[in-house]
Structure formats: structure tokens, C-alpha cells
Amino acid sequence: RGFLNDLIRLKEIEVPQSDLRRTLTVLDLTTLGVGGVIGAGIFVLTGVVAHEKAGPGVVLSYGGVGLAMILTAFCYAEFAARIPVAGSAYTYAYTQIGEFLAFIIGWDLTLEYTITVAAVARGWSGYLRVLLQGLGLNYPEVMTNIPIGITSLDVTATLAVIVMTLAMGLGVKLSARLNGAIVAISISVILFIIGVGGANANTSNWSPFLPYGISGVFKGAGTVVFAFIGFDSVTTTAEEVINPQRSLPIAIVGSLLISTGLYMGVASVITLMVPYYEIDLSSPLATAFSTIGWEWAAVVISFGAFAALTTTMMVSLIAQPRVYYAMARDGLFFPWFAKLHARFNTPLNATMFTGLMASIMTLIFDIEVLSELVSIGTLLAFTIVCSSVILFRYRVPENGSRPAILLFCVIFSVTICGSCVAYGVHMAVPIVFGIISIILIGLFFRFKKAELPTNSFLCPWSPILPLLGLSFNIFMMVNLPAWTWLRLVIWLIIGLFIYFGYSRRNSLVGLAQRSGQDWRFSEQGKKSEADQVGLDEVTDATSQGDQETVVVS
User: Fold this and answer.
1) Which of helix, strand or coil describes residue 447?
2) Which of 305, 429, 484, 540 could form a disulfide with 43 if both were Cys (CB 3.0 to 4.6 A apart)?
3) H helices of 499-535, where?
């Protein structure tokens, strides 16, 4: 029983006094969100998905994923406003589901953001080469493509990650201002693409619209979800936001709406300009304009792509270290990651480690392998956040564990339904499980709802929106390739060794419970003398010294 209690123990959170500096505004957060989202999807993955998986149906892939992400964004916005703490989905899961799953999702996020940097850096180097060639400069191919066996090395992308990592260690406000300027350039170029490209559209290129069938749309959706992860990275900066209760919900939902509209517009334009089977995989938009004789436009697009991919790398390099920081501060990860730089108040150690891991992945793996691997991790995080909102709504003594059991049944039923569609099982089976899922969702209305805070943003139409978001995310997960699941399992197994070998023993919540105390954040962020009694073990666990944001109450 003690072992099980360790896995499901919850972290109680109020309003933390953070050592991070609060400097970010709504505009900063929105540009961070847009900068994190647009980039890889528009300038890299659109061509790959249209050419190999969905054809012109890539527009529907983006629309479907955008809808699912908007549903998920409402769930993120609720938690971000109610729990404005670094850590994003990891922190939310810790407060609603339990420590073990919180660690799993935090460990999953460490893979998500790092691979995002690596995947985007690969596309970044390709557009840099196209841009320089368009300006009449010769860039040696050996700097971006050194064939080795079944893969190739990209030296340029690796160097870009290293330089960007050093820049991100200088402070989040400086990074946000730089990001905002680059996002303005990126959006201007994207609007140029939609406007000018739309004037050169050929509707015959949309015949057939679904050359790979509806299954191609679903498979494309499973890949392009990678392009939407920027909005959740906004929540990792919660402790650096001036007014998080107001700013975070606006920025999360707003940046996602803007990005979804831009994605669908560009996907429509490129598939109308060029037949899907002729789209260039390395630089689809620039090449599309070159085919109509607008070489100068290709240079402009390459510059916009270069700028957009730069912001995507920046946002992920900001987000990832703050997940490490939150986990280390809770005792679930090594204390070295919780150290802040004395001058810049940034998690410099975690930032440098993130850059090192991302640069190694950038050097070795190609973009398609990286994008599919990060997609499944992203969807898993989104699913847990949607689940956390549902459990929060019904966490009252009268309900007991019935909401959690029913939620598990919904997840199981939706997974079976999605798997049947993905693998071509007779439609009668997914229809039956789809009906079962709807009935199970309806049963949530029989439970008593918990009292909700009145001074914070809440996800509307709950539990319908969270359950729909959860269902969409699961459906896209089961449409990803089997090898992607295998790699996720391997990564999670590595995480299990860390949790049971280190995290479970060093969890600050667990250490405080064993000392007969309740471990939580307080508004003051300081320890009282009475709180220190009997907590020498806890103090030793956080003796790296400069992190006093977590206290006993």
C-alpha cells in the first residue's frame, strides 16, 4: 500500500513566490506561442505530408489537428491560470493525477521539446542553403549533408542549435523581444505567400482531393500535430509572467487560433499551386514559387522560413529547461537542473544540457523521423492535461474513484475505435465503440461536480470539451506508425529506471510525508521556524541552496 501511495501522491499548490523574474506580457506570450507553432509546419512538414500522406487533404489534416488543439488549449488555459507555475503539463498532472504519471509526462516532455529543436534545426539548415543560393552565394553541401549509412550528418544545423542555446541562457525577456521581432517578419512573409500564391492557384491540382483516402488525412494529422506544440510551451514560462491569471489564457488560445488559420491558408495555397506529387520535400514553398518563374519570391520565402524556424527553436529552448527546472525543484530530477544563473535568473544548467542533447540529435537524425517521434509525446501530454481537467471537475468525496474509472473506460473505448479506423477494420467495429464512447461520456453528468474557483479562467462546456480533446488526441496517437510507439516505450522504460532509482526516494512531497508534514507552495515562499522541525531530511534534499520556492505549510 505504501508503494501505491507513493505513485498517486498529489502536490498541493497555491500561489508560488518564484525566484524567476516576472517580465513577460500578453504580447510577449502570444508571440512566443505563434513563434513556437508556425515554422516547422508551414515551411517544412506541409510539403512532406502533402506529398507522401494526404495530398491536398493536408488542409483537412491541419484543420482537424487545429480543432483538437483548440479543445486542448482550453484545458491548458484553465490550469495555466489556476496554477501559474513552471512545468506545464507535468505540474498539472502532479496536482490532479499523481506523482508517477506526472513524472512520466515530465520525462516525456524532455523528449518532446528536445526533438522539436533538432527537427526544426534540420529544416532551418535546408532553408539557409536555399536562401544563400538565391542570393547568388555558394554554400557547400557538405555543411548540411554528409551521408553516413542510412542517415546523414548536418553540421550547419548542429552549430545553429549551439549558438541558439547560448543566446537563450541570457534571459527570457531578451529572448522574448528577439522572438517578437522575428515573428513579425515570419507572419508578413506568410501573408505574402497566401496572397500571392492564391492568385496563382490552379483548382485542377485539387483533383483528386484525397488521393490517399481519409486514412491519409488521419496519418497526416498524426504527423502535423508536431507543428502545434508551441502553444503549450507558453505555459512553461508561467512564473515569469507579470499577470499570469489573465495573460496565459489569452495567449494560449489566441496564438493557437492565429497559427491554425495560417497553417490552413498556406496548405491550401501550396497544393493549389503545385500538384501534390511534385511538391519539393526539402523547401516546398520556395520551390513552388520558383516553378512559376518567381525566383525573387523564393528568396523572400526562404528568408521568412529561416526566421520562422529560428523562433521555433528559440521557444523550445526556452520551454525545455523550465520543465527540467520544475522537476528538479520537486526532487524528481537531479538538483543540478534547478540551479539558476546568478545574473540572468535563468535555469542555465538545464538550458545548456538541452542544447547539448538537441545538437547531438540534430547531427544524426533526419526531420521526418524526429517529427513523428515528437508527435506521439506531444499527444500523450495533451491527453493527460485533458484528463486532469476532467478529474478536477469531479474530485469530491461523494464520487469516490468512479470518475477516474469511467475516464479509463472512455480512453480504452476511444483507443479501440481509433485503432480500428487506423488499421482498416470493418467499419461496424469502430461505429460500435464510437457509440459506446458517447454513452460513457454521457455518464459523467451523473456525478456531482466540485466547487470551482470564481476568480480564474475555466474550460467552458466541461466535461464535453475536455473529453472531445482527449478523444481527438488519442485518435491521432493510434494513427502514428508502430515504430513510433516502440521508441516511446523505450524512452519511457529509461524514465522508469530514473523514477524508481532516484525520483521516488528524493521526491520532496514524499520526504515531507514521511516526516509527517504536508508539502506545498505558500504565498510567502519562506519557511517558518516551526516548519523546519523534523525536516532536516527534506532540507538536505534541496541543499543546492538557492531554491526556496517550495515550503511546508
Assistant:
1) coil
2) 305
3) 504-506, 508-514, 529-532
Q: SS3 for 546?
A: coil
Per the CB < 8 A criterion, the answer to whether 262 and 38 are in contact is yes
Which among 91, 7, 11, 90 is positioned nearest to 518, based on CA atoms?
11
DSSP 296-332: HHHHHHHHHHHHHHHHHHHHHHHHHHHHHHHHHHTTS
Three cell numbers, residue 39: 515554422
pLDDT value for 142? 62
Identity of the amino acid at 173: K
Instruction: In whole angstroms, give the CA distance from residue 372 to residue 307.
Output: 23
Classify residue 241 by its DSSP letter: B
- Which residue from 156, 83, 151 is spatially nearest to 121, judged by alpha carbons? 156
- Max mean pLDDT range (76-85, 213-222, 342-351, 465-474): 465-474
| Grid cell at residue 418 | 481509433
- 170, 346 in Cβ contact below 8 A? yes
Report DSSP letters for 73-97, one per residue. Answer: HHHHHHHHHH---TTTHHHHHHHHT
β-strands 151-153, 146-148 pairing? antiparallel
**Given the C-alpha cell 517580465, which residue does it identify?**
23
pLDDT band at 176 (very low <50, low <70, confident <90, very high): low
The rounded distance, in Å, linking the Cα atoms of 326 and 346 is 12
pLDDT 10s digits, 214-266: 888 888 887 787 777 667 777 777 777 787 778 888 888 888 888 888 889 98
Kindly state the cell numbers that stand for 520.
506545498
Residues 6+ apart with CB under 8 A from 514: 537
What is the spatial distance between Cα 13 and Cα 113, in angstroms, rounded to a whole number?
Answer: 25
- Is a pLDDT exceeding 90 seen at residue 78? no
Return d(Cα 348, Cα 200) in angstroms, integer.
Answer: 48
* Residues paired with residue 279 on neighbouring β-strands, in sequence order: none
Mean pLDDT of the chain: 78
Q: What is the mean pLDDT of residues 154-179?
A: 74
% of the chain exceeding 70 in pLDDT: 82
The predicted structure's pLDDT at residue 515: 74
Instruction: Return the C-alpha cell found at 195.
Output: 496572397
